[in-house]
Design goal:
Helix content is about 30%, strand content about 40%. The chain is α+β, with helices and mostly antiparallel strands and about 170 residues long.
Length: about 170
């Protein structure tokens, strides 16, 4: 399946294309290597999305470039699946993250990227970078409500990764 947009990888360098809604967010998760390791695991295993309330269909346990994943939201027969493909991944000693792009059937078109980093002062940071626009009629019809839903999802991601990263330090 082909991606539904042409600006592949734009969340990696942050040079977002025109014609989309742009989202940038940064949150402090805590301090130290244990928090960082917990955040990397939560992000890479898609546990962040699960803890945020999404269903996850993935053929692998950890994110990898080229992997296709579907995120489901809603309940029962009203569950909507949003298929994506990981289009970039960075896995360095002090930085981990990936971006995924929308595939046909996703209610929006665009890309979302997540990055966890360990700063020299041992502060652990989480970043969200995204650009998107409606792709299905019901998202277009929702108008500004669609942006509120996206913002709420990002709030849930931040809360989920914070809890997961810090839970590992208590062990």
């Amino acid at each position: 399946m082909e991606l539904t947009y042409s600006e592949v990888g734009a969340t990696f360098d942050g040079a977002f294309p025109n014609g989309y809604r742009h989202v940038r967010g940064r949150a402090r998760l805590g301090r130290g290597e244990r928090v960082y390791a917990g955040a990397v695991h939560a992000l890479g295993s898609f546990d962040m999305q699960r803890r945020a309330g999404l269903r996850v269909r993935a053929s692998v346990g950890m994110a990898a470039e080229g992997v296709e994943v579907a995120f489901g939201f809603g309940a029962g027969p009203l569950r909507l699946w949003a298929p994506v493909r990981v289009v970039w991944l960075v896995n360095e000693p002090l930085r981990y993250g990936y971006g995924y792009g929308t595939l046909p059937g996703h209610p929006e078109t665009g890309e979302e990227g997540f990055l966890v980093s360990l700063a020299p002062d041992e502060t652990v940071w989480f970043e969200v970078r995204a650009f998107s626009r409606p792709d299905r009629w019901f998202v277009r019809a929702a108008g500004p409500l669609g942006a509120l839903v996206q913002d709420r999802a990002n709030d849930k991601y931040r809360s989920a990764i914070h809890r997961l990263a810090n839970a590992r330090t208590a062990a």
